[in-house]
Write a structure and sequence with these properties.
Blueprint lengths: L2 E4 L2 E12 L4 H4 L5 H6 L1 H4 L12 E11 L2 E5 L22 H7 L9 E3 L12 E4 L2 E4 L5 E5 H7 L16 H11 L3 E4 L2 E5 L2 E5 L8 E7 L2 E7 L6 H4 L11 H17 L3 E4 L8 E6 L2 E7 L10
Length: about 300
Amino acid sequence: MNTITLGNISLTRVWEYSGPVDMTPETFFPESPAKAWEENRGMLVPDFLDDDTRIVNSAIQTWLLRSEGRTILVDTGVGNHKERPYAPVWSRMDTAFLDNLARAGVRPEDVDIVINTHLHIDHVGWNTYLDGRTWVPTFPNATYLMPKDDFDFWHPDNGHRTVLGRGNQNVFEDSVAPVHQAGQTLLWEDSHQIDAGLRLDTAPGHTPGSCVLTLTSGSDRAVLVGDLLHSPVQILEPDSNSCFCEDPAQARATRRKVLGWAADNNALVVPAHLGGHGAAEVVRDGSRFAITGWAAFAPYTEQG
């Protein structure tokens, strides 16, 4: 199963990549306690951690929502044929992402809204595709919703220093600027109501403009949290940032705030990069959180 229904909104995950990301837990999550990985090994292996190499496994995927007659994509992955000299794991990829999107019943021209939860390399790639020698918007009829704070932060003319160093090189030029120049972006601040059941809110820390998408439909609740979480360990140990967080203190506070809301409102937590069942049900567990269940998505490791 790759689709679940929450109230009147359907949520489908569309695969681009799943597997190792060439980092151990100590590198990817330097603040996480070693015992969290050992004590939860049974939950983490194989979907989130390779037992032999101790390399973290991750997924690159797009969340497809259908709400009030509109087709909405949340994050667009890495993209094909993109030069990523300082992120070789994502350089010059050649995946069947658009074919996978078609299998979900969506052609590029069908997409009404694209949401970039932030403007990192692995969240904006399919915003554009290479047409000859020119990067052009992949979704010609879509409005691309981008957090203004991230647009400003990553604009090369502004010269901001970042924990990524050169890791996001070329990303703005080939995956953000062409969409903006085509007049298809809406740069929003603070919050943005998409429809009766979907609202964007800033959730900074990972990047200055990182955001979450809250879904409310009938009695169902979900929150799509982008890179607020990369691993289930960050639910169990919410003070554990990834090595990519621009403002560590703010990232920890934001993670606790969003997880607390999800626990108090029985909301499904839907990160950008979880493999396995893709999304988790959480409750408070003292000063931490616990996972009580998973979404019904079939793990990629069970899909051959």
